[in-house]
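[09:14] KT: can someone run the structure on this one? pasting the chain below
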Amino acid sequence: MKKSAALYLSAREASAELAISPATLYAYVSRGLIRSEPSLDSRSHRYRAEDVRLLKQRRTPSPEPRGLRSFDADLPVMDSAIATITEDGPIYRGVNCIELAEKDTLEHAATLLWDVAGVDPFSRDNCPLVSGEMRAVADAARRAAPIDRTIAVLALAASADPRAFTRAAEGRAMVGGRILRLVVATMLNGSSSGEPLHLQIAKAWAPDNKHAADLIRRALVLLADHELNASTFTVRCAASTGLNLYDAIIAGLVALKGPKHGGAGVLAAQLVKTLVDGDVAPVIRERVALGERFAGFGHGVYKHGDRRAHALLQALARAGAAQKLTREIPERIAEATGEFVNIDYALAVLVHTLGLAPGNELVLFAMARTVGWIAHACEQLRHGGLIRPRARYIGPAPGRSPAFNRP
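[09:31] RB: done, structure tokens below
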């Protein structure tokens, strides 16, 4: 199968997906509802699969209340050139992140997502400017949660960086490089360095594990961006008000902490701890019988499995991680529930394999996703305009409020 196949459908496939005639398909294209472009052979046209499926969702009633659905087709949809999601994995500006993670670094993924060519955001001299106040806050918060400490330091960082408010695209990329290095150093309770980020993290977390650097490098690239998720949308909303990049990243870090987003990795770590010793079959059977969910399994976007998780678990298996964690547990839970492994479980296995404390799943996630947040903040700032969705009012009609009519 061609690499681009997951992104496109033929006219026949698109018509079948929507149960419409080719003539109706062409009408949708003419109205701008479905994007179309010439096929590689130039003899026919191909159609964007995500547009076809979004239109299908709009035409299919959901059993959930409108406005309360996850991944609702009526929720905000934005044009972005940064990334998209396919069943073959996220695509970073035309490059599959699964393939990118085989050999590239987070820094290279960043220059790709930030669309940088004329400058090097990760030159050795592009280090963050750290004020005395920032150092004092970092020292005072050394025992605080890494994300909380980083939020506190970032709150002071724009004032210390005289180029924080630059509007030049290359200038923003350089600011992005300083932010990423500051985020990693602060989360590690260390000093900023020009050394590759995955090596810094591996030396701080697992200096005696010969596989740690490569495994961390892979995870960072796989997590760098994931289109318009909750934290990224939060970042774009914040950036649309005209915030500098430092403050926009704070918005993303706060949103990421939620248990339904980045915090799911911590819950997956608890699952790993529960299942790592003893027979997994009775534990899974009991939890299924009780109707309990398995953190790290199932995904609102990937219906047939998260390719990022498979890629990381395969790398862990090659590095000697327990087959029980990399293969047996995912297969048994999928068989029992029909839900496939996602990246949160794979991160939990990585943290367990490296002998790290639970909670570092979220820290690694935050380090990596900072790259995507910077990309989206820059794109939003470049396009301009305030993001201001409207609410669909479902409250009492005027004059009929129970509180208003009380005696």
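[09:33] KT: thanks! The two ends are 70 Å apart (CA to CA).
[09:34] RB: yep, looked fine to me
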